[in-house]
Amino acid sequence: MTTSAHDGSLSPLTGLGVAILAVSTSAILVRWSTAPSLVKAFYRVVFTVALLAPVALVRHRDALASISRRDLWAASGAGVALAAHFASWFESLNHTTVAASVTLVQAQPLFVAVGAWAFLDERVSRRTTLGIGVALAGMVLMSLSDLLTASGAPRPLFGNTLAIVGAVTAAAYVLTGRSVRSRVALVPYVVVVYSVCALALLSVAVARGDPLSGYPPREWLLFLGMAIGPGIFGHTVINWALAHLESSVVSVSLLGEPVGSTILALFLLGEIPTLPTILGGAIVLGGIYITAS
């Protein structure tokens, strides 16, 4: 790991810390919005593309034009997977607690490991297998505890399932785009992926009849906040940090998101997680740590 080999004056570790704080606000912003889940996801992605597209067109025009057809197809597949991730995770927050939803959706490294073994013929170590087993035990505890305790969530088991679907589709997004990222620069890649993601979300929202306009200014500010905070300062900075830090450091640091989101939900939403949720979440995070470190 190095903190000195980077462009500019911002330390990668500092940038990573800012990014974790930024992504921790995502669940709170989603919960504050009263728009349909697909609409929230659509505008988050649209505003992110709107912010990044000028940079891509001015500074990365040649890189955009030189993306091969094969890489465009792969990036498009990643965009569809990302749309499924946003749709399922945003909807999960309507049914379960922030603590459960964010912890379960953060389990995507486990499914990346399984997918890499199943589809890319990558070896799975004993440590990875142990981590996956520990995390799955924590997921079961979290899901079953919601049936036995008063978590305050309307449909916790359904919401937890959607969060796990969000983790699986996030893993599909990572696996689909992993080879492309070695050939295409960050900004052109995410612009293509987010554009396809927005189109996928738009088509499903229109098919469902979700209204795309008529929202008060507060909602538009929340949509923009989702793009600037978790989108630009969160995931985009995390991708930047990956070029300067070991991937294991970044992966383990992402375990701070469920903790940050849970603390924010406590103070901003008055949402107190149950003891089984805390214990199950700690086990899940422990399993992710074993797998990613």
TrEMBL record:
Cellular component GO terms held in the UniProt record: membrane
Transmembrane as UniProt keyword: yes
Protein's name in the database: Transporter
Membrane-spanning ranges: 12-30, 42-60, 72-90, 96-120, 132-151, 157-175, 187-208, 220-242, 249-269, 275-292
InterPro entries the record matches: EamA_dom, EmrE-like
Residue ranges of every copy of the EamA domain listed in the record: 19-143, 158-291
Chaperone among keywords: no
Cited SUPFAM superfamilies: Multidrug resistance efflux transporter EmrE (SSF103481)
Record keywords, A-Z: Membrane, Transmembrane, Transmembrane helix
Source superkingdom: Archaea
